Amino acid sequence: MKKAVFPGSFDPITLGHLDIIKRSLPLFDEIVIAIGINAKKNYMFSIEERKKFIQNSFFAEEKIIVETYSGLTVDYCKTIQADFILRGLRNPADFEFEKAIAQTNRKLSGIETVFLLTSADTSFISSSIVRDIIRNGGDASSLIPDAVSNAMNP
Ligand code: ADP
Questions:
Q1: What are 58-101's pLDDT values in tens digits?
Q2: Which of 21, 54, 87, 122 has most ligand 1 atoms within 8 Å of its beta carbon, as the pocket-test mutant?
Q3: Which residue of 12, 88, 105, 154 lies most exposed, with the fewest beta carbons within 10 A?
Q4: Separation of CA 86 and ligand 1 centre (Å)
Q5: Which of the two residues, 150 and 80, has the higher pLDDT score?
Q6: Is the pLDDT of residue 36 over 80?
Q7: What is the rounded (10 degree) CA torsion for 25, 29, 30, 31?
């Protein structure tokens, strides 16, 4: 079984993440969207909120599981017997950052990282810009899944 972990902060999940996840569905039998818990990071949304946003975005998709984890991503992959890490690439900065992590992860564990290039219409979207819009009272609904907008404005 081809099982991939898509690790990230998802603070919150955006249409950019959604695009990567949807396009990876034909490639894997199971995709674990794994929300990393990093005690040093300040998040806008709680772990429960971030998990709910993702679950609501994919409630009908049987291949997708949403989990949380702490510690090294490769250790988490081994625990759940996933052979692949999924990541998205938006720009050269993402590439440089991801290259070192992917090479290190393969050295440490043999786990391959599979990269999908962002779609042209979602390449500019980032969780940090979405957070800025929300923090300043703007409307981020064109950048995030409906399940997230609806949960924020019930
Ligand atoms: P992290 O803190 O691990 O970078 P993020 O939630 O910001 O967590 O991102 C998780 C993954 O989603 C990363 O691989 C990132 O490159 C990818 N990603 C984020 N936004 C987009 C986008 N608009 N298009 C493609 N990939 C994206």
A1: 988 999 999 999 999 999 999 999 999 999 999 999 999 999 99
A2: 87
A3: 154
A4: 10
A5: 80
A6: yes
A7: -30
Which residues touch 97 (CB under 8 Å, ≥6 apart)? none
3-state secondary structure of 23: helix
41 is an active site residue: yes
Can 78 be counted among the known catalytic residues? Answer: no
Distance CA 108, CA 76 (A): 13
Task: Judge whether 87 counts as a catalytic residue.
Answer: no
Cis? peptide before 26, omega within 30° of 0? no
Q: What is the mean predicted confidence (pLDDT) over 3-12?
A: 98
pTM for the full predicted model: 0.96
State residue 116's pLDDT score.
Answer: 98
> Among the atoms of ligand 1, which is closest to the Cα of residue 11?
6
Q: How confident is the model at residue 151 (pLDDT cuts 50, 70, 90)?
A: confident
Phi, psi of 59 (to 5 degrees): -60, -25
Structural domains of the chain, ranges and CATH numbers in brackets:
3-152 (3.40.50.620)
Best substitution site from 11, 17, 68 to test ligand 1's pocket, by max atoms within 8 Å of Cβ? Answer: 17
